Amino acid sequence: MKLSEAADGAEHGTDRGGTGRRRGRLAFTLFSLLLLLALWFLAARLIASPVLPGPEAVARAFWRASLTGVLPASLAITLARVVASFLIAMVIGAAVGILLGRSPGLDRLFGPWLIMLLNLPALVIIILCYVWFGLTEAAAITAVAINKIPNVAVTLREGAASLSRDLDEMAQVFRFGPLRTLRHVVLPQLSPFFAAAARSGLALTWKIVLVVELLGRSNGVGFELQTAFQLFDVATVLAYALAFTVVVQIIELALIEPWERRANRWRR
Amino acid sequence: MTGLRVDIREKRFPAVAGGPERVIYRDFALEVASGAILMLLAPSGLGKTTLLNIIAGLDRDFIGSVRLDAAPGGRGRSRLSYAFQSPRLLPWRTVEENVALPLGEGDAARGAARAMLDAVGLLEQAGAYPERLSLGQQRRVALARAFVIEPDLLLMDEPFVSLDEAGAARLRDLLRRLLAVHPATVIFVTHDSREAVELGTRIVRLDGPPARIVKDIAINLDAAARRAAPGEALRAELAAP
């Protein structure tokens, strides 16, 4: 009894330490961002030119675009494109990666294709998609997904190649069958690789979505950025960029991190 | 319960890292009667685990055959269970889920798992994750998982190794009690002749390579005699060349 109490006490102690550390890190992140803001403010004051608007000018641009409703609508459209292409890329990329990681023969055959695709410039894929499939929504989302699929596949292939043979044999002896094996044996081992692919994927996806919108869509953040560029309206460019960065950060904090914590709760 | 017959014409390990190719088994035959508790005693590296993997169907790269008798009572294919040398639990599933998963994912499976955990004295840990348990507890969970499917044939690969003697003795006791309630044919690999004498109804000692049977002894003693002089005599006989 005493022993287990002591152990519990120690555990609570480290937990508190963990929360404290997290809070400390958060405060420091905030400080770092405020420092950046201050530097930006000073630089804008010193240069005093319309090509480097200060934070207050960007805030005004943000407010203006929000009042007309264009900014929230553009954010929503772009976000929808990001989510659609991200999900497609994760599903297809994971399937391809797991398949190649599990089968050395397939990997020898299709591995070089993956490397090719990985090194194909995003712009080339976008142009080809628009040329082949027309300036459509489907072409836009396909282009982004194709850009992202090889990254996901390479990451998940690494994960699938390092799966535990011991647990595989266990599942085989106890006749888990393909579905129970996938759900309880394979996917949990791959969750760190999914998290890595999702994290790098989200950032990459939204950057490419903007290019796709700039080249062939008549709405979304990318399209608005192009308009602002033609007017040399740097404040609006920064307002859109910052707004979307915040959105992506919120997705990371509200979705990916909690999911990762849940997937890792069994770890000691 | 189910009997079985293993015939291995030849099993080789391919050459690795400059070492020569090794023949593990050649013209090897072993018949196990239904309900036997066969203790397989052999020095390490002789291919005991390989034999269990061949019987379990995990290793199909050999020339020969494994025949399991049909299960009694018209249950169709006989059920096989395996307690590995390491517990091989899923660290991301709770103890209860680990024991339930061989049966499926429904409430019935969970109920059976809890009953089994109760039998091995770990019901309180049902919701814990395996890595929070001691090695002895993890081995008991693995034992519960092996028994939850009510196997006809139970393969055990040094399942009590790297425990202290008291812990191993408690687990041997537990195994005896579980087998009394759920009878099964057992093939139990060990390198400990004391363990072999204490648990088995038959002890086979292998030597090699290639592995061949050098001793094959039936045991018909009660538990007290196994620990006393008759058991000692058996161990001496086993150790004799």
CATH class of the largest domain in chain A: Mainly Alpha
Mean pLDDT of chain B: 83
Largest interface, C-beta closer than 8 angstroms, per-chain residues: A-B, 18 and 24 residues
User: Rg of chain B, please?
Assistant: 18 Å
Share in helix of chain B: 25-40%
* Helical percentage of chain A: over 70%
- Beta strand count of chain A: 0
* Helix vs. strand class of chain B: alpha/beta
The number of helical runs of chain A is 10
* Helix-strand sequence of chain B: EEEHEEHHHEHEHEEHH
The coarse silhouette of chain A is: globular
Assembly of the depicted chains? heterodimer
The N- and C-terminal alpha carbons of chain B lie at a distance of 33 Å
- Helix and strand run of chain A: HHHHHHHHHH
Query: How much of the residues of chain A is beta strand, in percent?
Result: under 5%
Q: How would you explain this protein's 3D organization?
A:
Chain A: InterPro entries: MetI-like, MetI-like_sf. Chain A: It is found in: Cell membrane. Chain A: Belongs to the binding-protein-dependent transport system permease family. The complex is a heterodimer of chains A (268) and B (241). Chain A has 268 residues and is mainly alpha-helical. Chain A folds into two domains: 1-48; 54-263, MetI-like (MetI-like fold), CATH 1.10.3720.10. Chain A has helices at residues 2-47, 55-67, 70-102, 104-119, 122-133, 137-161, 165-173, 177-216, 221-230, 234-263. In chain B, β8 (202-207) and β9 (212-218) form a beta hairpin. Chain B has a six-stranded mixed β-sheet, sandwiched between helices. The mean pLDDT of chain B is 83. In chain B, α3 (107-119) crosses α4 and α4 (135-148) packs parallel to α5. The interface between A and B is medium-sized, with 18 and 24 residues.
